[in-house]
Amino acid sequence: MSTGARRGGRGVVIALAALAVAGATGCKREKQLAGVDRWNVKHTRLKDATGRCTPTDFPDGRSGMWCFGQQPIGIKGMAVDIDLYFAGTAPETPIAELQLKVRACNEDKILEWMRQNWGAPYQDNGKVFLWRNDNMRIAGFIPDEPASCLLRMYPPAEQAAFERAANK
């Protein structure tokens, strides 16, 4: 066996030992979600939208696209419509907002689902709930209207839009 092969093997052993020690000492990096279903604030681009898209203007003056009519998803037995907003019109434009409209929303169930996936909200005023992680910011309006809830999800680059929504 060559010296290089032995050194590489020892490096693997050292790396595995370091991982074992980190695990034994309670160091654990939890996976942080960046979206829901196939929609991800880190990877979704305008070209990925499957519904109908139409031009829209953002509150900050930018022009972009609003895409609606995506395939609905289910969360804890509730139907969820998905709208996507993009701050541009080029196919590679990244998503600016992922919006989930929960029909016949059971507030307890949607809050349970949010806590399971994003933890406790860092702010809760009884109707507006705010979550954040390294990948996204979420403003939850629970309820938004009678029997419906609205979850507005943003990438960190859209912090100003998130703050506008959170202060709605």
Task: Describe the SSE topology.
Layout: H1 3-24, E1 35-36, E2 39-40, E3 52-57, E4 63-68, E5 73-75, E6 78-86, E7 95-103, H2 107-118, E8 123-124, E9 128-132, E10 137-145, E11 148-154, H3 159-166
Antiparallel strand pairs: 1-2, 3-4, 4-6, 5-6, 6-7, 7-11, 8-9, 9-10, 10-11
Helix fraction bin: 25-40%
Average pLDDT, rounded to a whole number, is 85
Oligomer: single chain
Count of helical segments? 3
Give the helices and strands as they follow along the chain.
HEEEEEEEHEEEEH
- As a percent range, the share of strand residues is 35-45%
Backbone structural class: alpha+beta
- How many beta strands in the DSSP annotation? 11
Give the biggest beta sheet. 9 strands, antiparallel
Molecular structure report:
The protein has 168 residues and is an alpha+beta fold. It has 2 domains: 1-30; 33-166, no CATH class. The longest helix has 22 residues, at 3-24. The chain has 3 helices and 11 strands; from the N terminus they run H-E-E-E-E-E-E-E-H-E-E-E-E-H. The chain is globular, with a radius of gyration of 20 Å. Strand 5 (73-75) and strand 6 form a beta hairpin.
